[in-house]
């Protein structure tokens, strides 16, 4: 991937040394209380506390569930809950999760169950259940971008993931519970029913006042998540985004460019990742965005996994990246919140990450955009946006 001058590496080192996750905070929107957990340690404790406090039911979905210390801690807490009579259901994505039946046996032996989305290889295996959520007693929930693995709960550092979890109390938990019921019906030994999934992804959303659940996935036309964010981008004048993977379709990119021209757009993107092709895919789009006045930043202290969009007075939070997979292929869950005070608070959250990021100015981008680097970026874009998307779509045609 692109070479970084020594001076840039030095600044990145300073950012790593001084960056700290912001403190957790709360917001009340109508009848809902949202608690934000930027710190990995706080995310871990909040999840375990949710599990320990459950009395009737626990419903969990995770894309990655690792066989490491974090995975063992969550597994054991779930097994303890099942042993005290809590109805425990865990859904994992077989593509993303390393957790085996043997590893999860203590949960099953205690009376819980686990289901796999796409449990065996098939054409549909390339469509992933990318959602992350935990629901206790149908009244409290935690959701966001984080997975169950040590790197998602570690302090900032080169091998850690910077992420965000959101605790939720209020009527909107019922919407998440309703969606979980659909996921459970689609998961298991027989594999997912993609006919039902496609219909649900196109039509399902759930709202209560200013909170609205949206889902993404493989469907003809746009999912509720993709359709809603498209409409907000079309009319919006101020965009702030922290996004782990950024490689949208050309139409979505055009809307961001148009918004930047008529208003203001700030995007915090990844300088470090587990997949260098995704970084190249994003950098291939920098020139277009910079020409239209967008301000771009690459986050330096850790691998970036946060998914956050603030559009005017609306906040999007959840599991979806802003790439073609999350917009059109993977199963995703996003919460749209209309609240001016929360939007302003989340812009402060974005600013905290900008302070630990490198500003990608037109001059800096020009020095990096050597012929070799442009080829690498283009190749990353083709791999992420064209080949992966096209192959998955052709193996899983939408009727």
List keywords for this structure.
alpha/beta; disordered N terminus; 14 helices; disordered C terminus; nine-stranded mixed sheet; 399 residues; eight-stranded mixed sheet
Structural account:
With 399 residues, this protein is of the alpha/beta class. The protein has 14 helices and 21 strands. Helix content is 41%, strand content 25%. The model is unreliable at 1-10, 119-125 and 391-399 (pLDDT under 50). Strand 4, helix 4 and strand 5 (113-117) form a beta-alpha-beta unit. The chain is globular, with a radius of gyration of 20 Å. Helix 7 packs parallel to helix 8 and helix 9 packs across helix 14. The strands form four sheets. The chain has a nine-stranded mixed sheet, with helices on both faces.
Topology (SSEs and partners):
Blueprint lengths: L5 H13 L6 E5 L2 E6 L2 H14 L3 E6 L6 H15 L3 E7 L11 H5 L3 E5 L15 E4 L3 E5 L16 E2 L2 E5 L3 H14 L7 H10 L1 E4 L2 E6 L7 H12 L2 E6 L2 E2 L2 H13 L1 E7 L5 H8 L2 H6 L3 E5 L3 E2 L2 E5 L2 E5 L3 E2 H5 L3 E7 L1 H15 L2 E4 L1 H7 L2 H25 L4
Parallel strand pairs: 3-4, 4-5, 8-16, 12-14, 13-19, 14-15
Antiparallel strand pairs: 1-2, 2-9, 3-6, 6-7, 7-9, 10-11, 11-20, 12-17, 15-21, 17-18, 18-20
Helix pairs in contact: 2-3, 7-8, 9-14
Characterize this entry briefly.
The protein is of the alpha/beta class and 399 residues long.
Total count of strands? 21
Number of helices: 14
* % residues in beta strands: 25-35%
- The pLDDT mean sits at 89
Roughly how much helix do the residues carry, as a percent range? 40-55%
Measure the end-to-end span.
Answer: 39 Å
Instruction: Give me the side-by-side strand order of the main sheet.
Output: 10-11-20-18-17-12-14-15-21
Alpha-beta classification:
alpha/beta
User: What is the CA-atom radius of gyration, in angstroms?
Assistant: 20 Å
Shape: globular
The profile of the biggest β sheet is:
9 strands, mixed
Provide the low-confidence segments as ranges. Answer: 1-10, 119-125, 391-399
Assembly type of the shown chains? single chain
């Amino acid at each position: 991937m692109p070479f970084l001058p020594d001076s840039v590496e030095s600044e990145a080192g300073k950012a790593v040394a001084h960056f700290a996750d912001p403190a957790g905070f709360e917001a009340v929107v109508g009848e809902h209380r949202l608690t934000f957990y930027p710190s990995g340690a706080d995310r871990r404790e909040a999840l375990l506390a949710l599990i320990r406090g459950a009395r009737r039911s626990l419903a969990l979905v995770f894309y990655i569930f690792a066989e490491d210390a974090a995975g063992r801690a969550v597994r054991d807490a779930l097994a303890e809950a099942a042993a005290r009579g809590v109805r425990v259901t865990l859904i994992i994505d077989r593509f993303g999760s390393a957790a085996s039946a043997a590893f999860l046996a203590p949960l099953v032996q205690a009376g819980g169950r686990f289901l796999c989305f796409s449990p065996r290889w098939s054409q549909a295996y390339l469509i992933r259940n990318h959602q992350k959520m935990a629901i206790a007693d149908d009244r409290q929930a935690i959701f966001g971008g984080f997975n169950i693995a040590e790197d998602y709960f570690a302090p900032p550092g080169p091998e850690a993931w910077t992420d965000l979890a959101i605790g939720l109390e209020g009527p909107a938990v019922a919407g998440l519970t309703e969606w979980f019921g659909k996921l459970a019906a689609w998961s298991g030994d027989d594999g997912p029913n993609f006919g039902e999934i496609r219909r649900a992804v196109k039509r399902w959303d759930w709202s209560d006042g200013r909170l609205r659940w949206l889902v993404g996935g493989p469907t003809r036309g746009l999912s509720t998540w993709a359709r809603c964010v498209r409409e907000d981008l079309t009319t919006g004048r101020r965009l702030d985004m922290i996004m782990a993977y950024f490689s949208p379709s050309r139409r979505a990119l055009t809307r961001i460019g148009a918004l930047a021209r008529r208003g203001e757009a700030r995007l915090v993107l990844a300088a470090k990742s587990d997949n260098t092709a995704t970084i190249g895919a994003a950098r291939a789009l920098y020139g277009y965005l910079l020409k239209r006045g967008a301000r771009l930043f690459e986050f330096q202290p850790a691998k970036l996994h946060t998914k956050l969009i603030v559009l005017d007075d609306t906040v999007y939070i959840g599991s979806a990246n802003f790439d073609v997979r999350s917009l059109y292929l993977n199963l995703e869950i996003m919460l749209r919140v209309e609240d001016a005070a929360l939007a302003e608070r989340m812009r402060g959250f974005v600013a905290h990450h900008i302070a630990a990021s490198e500003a990608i100015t037109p001059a800096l981008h020009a020095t990096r955009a050597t012929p070799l680097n442009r080829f690498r970026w283009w190749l990353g874009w083709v791999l992420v946006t064209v080949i992966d998307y096209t192959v998955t779509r052709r193996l899983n045609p939408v009727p």
